[in-house]
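Quick start: what a row looks like.
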Amino acid sequence: MSDSKLAGQFLDAAIGLLERVRDEESGNIAAAGAAIADTVAAGGRLFAFGAGHSSLAAQDVVYRAGGLALMNLLAVPGTLGVDVMPATLGSALERVDGLAGAVLDSSPARAGDLLVIISLSGRNALPVEMARDARALGLTVVGVTSVAYADATRSRHSSGGFLRDHCDIVLDSKIAIGDAELTAEGIEAPFAPASTVVTSALMQAMMAAAAERLVERGIEPPLLRSGNVDGGHEWNGRVMTEYADRIFYRQ
């Protein structure tokens, strides 16, 4: 069987985007890593939020081997993915004014913490208000978004603002509007989205930068090991015990 031309084209497109964020977002990645390290060193807590498919990149840095044990998922019920029925409900909830404030008020997030908000378009009410309200509470906010949407679409929030307008640090994923890298003859719609690949890579690069900064300060990064290697469970138990007051996914 011959190789797939379109599969190769998608991989090339994804690699090209990864090279762009490596070269063009290195300063922002370093700044985000430093902010995370600052928060850890100061005794703060870490949170990540994303709705719909953006939640995949948020979940990718929570309770995982090789990840910071202190990263917690800030969950908004009904918006985490296609497990909600109907799946379209999640998209509708992203446009509800006031929901972000209610979630933050009932969450453990407080001044001095850090929140990473992931939204590809950054135009819906939920991520915009989440960033605005979190900053008002005294959190540091890192946004991971595609700036192209803010330049070429209209906000769905009453303020007219986008996620990028309410962040301390913004990482641009470079994803084109529509999130589909390929077109082909005989296929009516564009296809092959790359936002999950690129956004997850940005998140992991940010975590790597944070670990680097912590070591520079003489602080052992509170990382988790795989539970599928010998000693992994014991290691993780020690880390979780030491940082129990900053880990909320065990409660």
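That is the whole record. The longest helix spans residues 195-216. The first strand starts at residue 46 and ends at 50.
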